[in-house]
Amino acid sequence: MDRQDMPGDVAAARARAEELRALIRHHDYLYYVLDRPEIDDAAYDALMRELRELEERFPEIITPDSPTQRVSGRPAAPFGRVRHAEPMLSLDNAFSADELRAFDQRVRRVVGDDVAYVAELKIDGLSIALTYEDGVFVRGATRGDGEVGEDVTANLRTIRSLPLRLRDAGRPVPRRVEVRGEVYMTFDAFRRLNEEQAARGQQPFANPRNAAAGSVRQLDPAVTASRSLDIWVYGLAALDPGPGGAPASQWEALQALREWGLPVNPHARRCTSLDEILAFIEEWAERRHELPYLTDGIVIKVDRFDHQRALGATARSPRWAVAYKFPAEKARTRVRDIIVGVGRTGALTPVAVLDPVLLAGTTVSRASLHNADYIREKDIRIGDLVVVHKAGEIIPEVVEVVKEARTGAERPFRMPDHCPSCGSRVVRVPGEAATRCPNAACPAQQLERIRHFASRDAMDIEGLGPAIIEQLVSRGLVRDVADLYHLTAEQVAGLERMGPKSAANLIAAIDASRDRPLRRLLYGLGIRFVGERVAAVLARHFGTIDRLMTAGAEELAAVPDIGARIAESIVAFFQDEHNRRLIQRLAAAGVRAAAGEPEPGSAGAPAAEGPAGAAPAPGDPGGGPDGGLAVSEEVRARVAGKTFVFTGGLASMTRDEAQALVEALGGRATSSVSRKTDYVVAGEGAGSKLARARELGIPVLDEEQFLRLVGRK
Ligand code: IVH
To answer: How much of the chain, in percent, has pLDDT values that exceed 90?
Structure first.
């Protein structure tokens, strides 16, 4: 059927699609089951093509059982897809000796008591599959969804320890083999990388694993090459052995991998009893701290491959292996001092300065103590020996004080009476935990406010990191966020570690932020209690900052999701003369916010304007270049009341923007896939949510289909 013959309305399209699906199912059955096809490939392809085109034009007619939904699992767009020769499964975890005993008993029930295991370090990095053909490295892939990964060959080639050709000395190289392993980053490389990130004003990586994963997925192999990655290989998948024959056990496989010149971790042990395994675990629970890389447990594998085959696998994980996970790490260290930082709202935050201690892979020398009450409750004193751990593996926290270790020389901490940055007398609002500096012009607050304004979820000004903001503030070039828009490239180039090129980039990034949507601006202003979600609600409801500024507490509190406390905080913010001036100056500097931005869903709100009714920026006719507000009723009807889950990254907008778009059209964006989910939108690098959608039979849209559905294409 030609495009022009296609049904023009949804009902007709839906009917035709159902017809096509029935036809395709019928021919599938004839072909795959009965092996008696009645039509040729070209005719079959034509049916599929017609259905695909229909579903592209009318994404809302896609059904989970449509034949077009059979294939997918979309890994990152810029990297090609690679289907693994055998699925890359994950491992079941064990956290105690009892759980390991149960594992051992299950194994023995199947293969008998003549069983041996190989215990290996579980490397905390990124799993990858390497394919060698006739000894030559031809492809490297990430795990992806386990079935299909991303082709990262060019990036993996930059890893020095990865041989591009296998050694042909002794054991003949196989015709074809897929080798499994873990890419990781040493602590040293991680530290260096984070220092460089900081010098460039970029966010540091939270841990070596994230750094390794981020580096492997770099689009530019030159960047990967600069990141000092390493690799350990630990397994064989598909093997076409050739004359050399195939290893019969994991232990032999490790030996073969080693002989072929691949990096195999030396700390593996063949064990013939549970006791030996437990001894190995105990040894490495201590010794792992001597290693220059992160291990988070011990993997125990049944040695013989025929035993492994007899045990088999579930859809998720093999029954012949288990990962013992080391308990969450804690460390003891001493509180050298307690210093006080000032946040953007003026809240004084006490921070413990610690004797540096290695904790879960990074050196910790600071831990937030939150507020005076927290310190009092835990009775933390300067000089105390304390136990620290990492909340969510990232943020170090003081768990408890080792009181037995006190000598009497410890000094209790007192919250200062004056702000450590500007010297103003601090206040403590009754009923609130925080102590605050009331001076809005306090340099520490200025710095934090600018940092928040520039942050990724707010105005997203790339390259404007803390080190640069600090210089801008201390040199008096910038006092508040409006000043950013008057900076010149010459001024920026004069800062430390800034060249003309990075200065020009920063100015361009600041310039680009003038067009950020209203909700980002509102969030970026740092109004108390106005987080990202509330900012989105406000932007949608009021449409312009002007309208929001004139709203009273009652009107605000009548908006769904806005409580009295939030309403009062917003009113107070906009009553403040200083804040009003700031918004006028932002507008005058061309921060258009709503103007160019379709803040769809603000249909009832007046046509978008610049903040504070500002004069349009030069070159902007004032009406906004984008006709995005004119969302058709049809689009709204498709989205309203529907629940969306986003997974992976979209190329044309951030996930926040996509969610806001859905919400603005009356839909809901949630974070987990359930039976109530109507659509899963899978972008680049979509993961477990995509798998879950498949499991539950929920329609999956790619970016293109999503954009059509919301009327953006
Ligand atoms: S064997 C069938 N051995 O741990 C799975 N995995 O969920 C076979 N890992 O991301 C995995 N060190 O990449 C195995 N010595 C080791 C490992 C190891 C790290 C990772 C693996 C996967 C996770 C297991």
So the answer is: 46
